[in-house]
Amino acid sequence: MSALEFAQWLQSTDWATYLRSSAYTYPSILASHLTGIALFAGAILVTDLRLLGVIMRNQPVSEVIGQLRWPKRIGLLVVATCGILLASSKAEEYYYNTFFRIKLTLLVLVAVHALVFRSSVYNNARALDQARRMPGKAKLAAALSLLLWISIACAGRGIGYIEPPLDKLHAALTSLRATAEPR
Amino acid sequence: MLIAFENPLNESALAFPILECFHILGFAMTLGTIALVDFRLLGFGLRQNAGELAKVLAPWTLFGLITVLLSGPLLFSSDPDMYYLNISFQIKMVLLVLAIVFHYTIRRKLLRGELSPGLNKPVACISLVLWSSIIFAGIFIAFVVTPGQ
Hints:
The structure holds two protein chains of two kinds.
Chain A: H1 3-12, H2 14-21, H3 25-51, H4 61-89, H5 91-95, H6 98-122, H7 125-130, H8 136-159, H9 166-180
Helix pairs in contact in A: 2-4, 3-4, 3-8, 6-8
Chain B: H1 15-41, H2 50-77, H3 80-85, H4 87-111, H5 120-140
Helix pairs in contact in B: 1-2, 1-5, 4-5
């Protein structure tokens, strides 16, 4: 099964069809997605500003990171659950959507960011508490994290501005298949 | 007398989405920083003194709020008739006024220790519900039918 076939199957499931055409459920999930973004953003912002040494300098880094770990996780869970529901309801449209592809790429970069910085920064906060000055690597991690999440929010907003002409695409595919078939 | 006036916002296809990005980032900053203090009042997340935490985060909340209050009216100006008549927009404006007033009166007093700590949890809940319902009302602007549109 190709990615496009998967997207077509996903979009044609009963609940995706229901979600797409619902008057209140779809906007409610979208609003929950955005509320989750705000809660998640607060935790990310404070963690990163602390790493950059902008706020809470009298609080140990390990405490700020540790205490915000669960709010961050819960926020991300809400955002991701709603996001997957929203994306699956329009999966085939989004398959062609440039901003959706950019957003997915940026999310992969978030995973890379975590792999690169987890051991040296986020799971190494106790050592950062002892450091006389915040190491450049921690500041870089914080700056990249802010940049990534801001870009993801903007890419997400961009998705809504592209409506791939599915009817035309389908018609083109049908005629392509027709010409490809042996007479 | 009718004056022909074209909103420059409507001349560029990019202006509206870019403004919306600022609007989203602004409210994420506002609600995000407010929620961290509300969570503290509910006994979740950051553990430093709630009043101090509020003081540390207040400039960031305000910065977000200013971004929202600058980008919002510009977005509104792109199609004032639609927004003006939109029931969800009307509800959003009422909620916004309530949230801002509540934030800078009762909630501020509580965080300065001028109210009984017994009010911590009710105030935190009201604050969270008010601010997140603004997001819901904002999203529904695009999903409710505006009379005459």
